[in-house]
Amino acid sequence: MTGEEAQIWRVYFRATHETNAADYHTELLRRWAPPDMDMTDWASRLLEKNPFVALTDDQIVGFAELDATGFVDYFYVSPDHQRQGVGAALMTTIVSEACTLGVPAITADVSITAKNFFLAHDFEIVESRMNVILGHPAPNFSMIRRLSEPVISHE
After folding, report:
1. Which of 9, 114, 123, 138 fits as disulfide partner to 131, beta carbons 3.0 to 4.6 Å?
2. Which residues lie across from 107 on neighbouring strands?
């Protein structure tokens, strides 16, 4: 991850400010991805989260995080590379990793902007939330993708 922090930040910043702009107020976007972000804090976060990255022409165009419990925290694709299979490839990667980890499901708190993408990848809405942050609506969705059904013994 060392040396890739700026590229990953650009993906996050652009996706937050460009892709989410249709659904969220500018003040919220600035809070979530501040233009003056401390890159030391960002680098520390990336070291802790160790995201999967998607590359096109040796440039990072997307990234996704999956923790040991199956929770997806960040999942972002550069606006220039959306609807080109980058998100689908990242989703395939995190599903595979979740299976390797042996978690029964993947969970995520998903923005209204990303809701349809997650639904298209077999996630279900567990809870719809209508948060208000900084006085502005900030809808999001608790979502789950079950990976395996428990085996029921009839002995």
Report:
1. 138
2. 71, 144
